[in-house]
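S.,

As promised, the magnesium ion run. Input:
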Amino acid sequence: MQTDFIDIADWPDDDEFSAAYPEGARPKRTLFSPLTPDQKYIKPDWRHMFKRSAERYPEQFWAEIIAYEISLLLGISAPPCYAAFDSRNGQCGALSAWFYKDGDESFYSAGNFFHKIVPGFDRERGTQHNIVDCDEFNNRVLGKDQIYGFWSMLLFDMLIGNTDRHQDNWGHLLKAVQLSKSVARRRGDKFDVKWRFAPWFDNGTSLGHELLSEKFSRWDAATLDRYIRRGKHHMRYSRDNLERMGHIESLSFIKSHAGVRVLLLKRLRDFDLNALGAVLERLVDLPAPAGGNLTKARAEFIFRLTQRRAQLAMETLNERN
Ligand SMILES: Nc1ncnc2c1ncn2[C@@H]1O[C@H](COP(=O)(O)OP(=O)(O)OP(=O)(O)O)[C@@H](O)[C@H]1O
Ligand SMILES: [Mg+2]
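Predicted complex:
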């Protein structure tokens, strides 16, 4: 649990990766945690990404941090993410721990397989990024039970209102596993490759981050509902139906799969809104550098939004066809 706003001023820069990620929607850089971090919850000598908000939305980094807290409450794997700042210049951002160790595993973003399997795939905007192809590919590399993991992510995205799970905002981790001598001889290969979903990262285009408080503080229940119902995943239905899946519609769509429906309902039932309220209070109270605090108004709005989304998700999954 985060107990202080982390100062990364003395964290060594990661030159190799900073050079590899010069661009992006938001200014970001990678760095290493110290050998003996001041915070117990920070993994020592470990690569982290420090990501500031887009200029237009200065409070956006909070969305990524709160999304991580929601992932914990929902039982979804996301990289740990904390509020941090650089005391040399006062810049604030979200600090996320790297989700794999170089050499042990490699990250393969979904954009890579889409690029291979969809002719003329639009890598820039991902206009053909669709759940049918995701499903087929995931079945192939992970087996049929992957659908539970994948739809847990889609529920998470619905709950936070994530509109940006594009083809390079999720993917797989690959690990080479040495085969026994006899198997290796039979297969003519020394290694097998084990696949798993990477933790679901880049969760900050969510939780109403683009709304200014002057706007959301005036919203009544009907306006809030309209906003939620307009929300869409990045993913499309299929190559033949390139419409983006609505957040709410996605749940109507998956509920015909009885097993997934039961799992998603269980996750929602176990989702503890009181615990979310306590997390938000703790984050509001975190002593912050000038201009970096999570305002009470935003925290309350995020609570209201998430509470309503959880209700609508539950209603949709319970509706009779
Ligand atoms: N915690 C992490 N562990 C490992 N890799 C990460 C982590 N965070 C980000 N990355 C890598 O860095 C890339 C950029 O990070 P991220 O997607 O968070 O930034 P962004 O600027 O919001 O990207 P976008 O272009 O989607 O807006 C990711 O696509 C991923 O490959
Ligand atoms: Mg990204």
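Residues 21, 24-26, 28, 49, 51, 79, 96-99, 168-169, 201-202 surround adenosine-5'-triphosphate (ligand 1) (CB under 6 Å). Residues 296-318 form the longest helix (23 residues).

- D.
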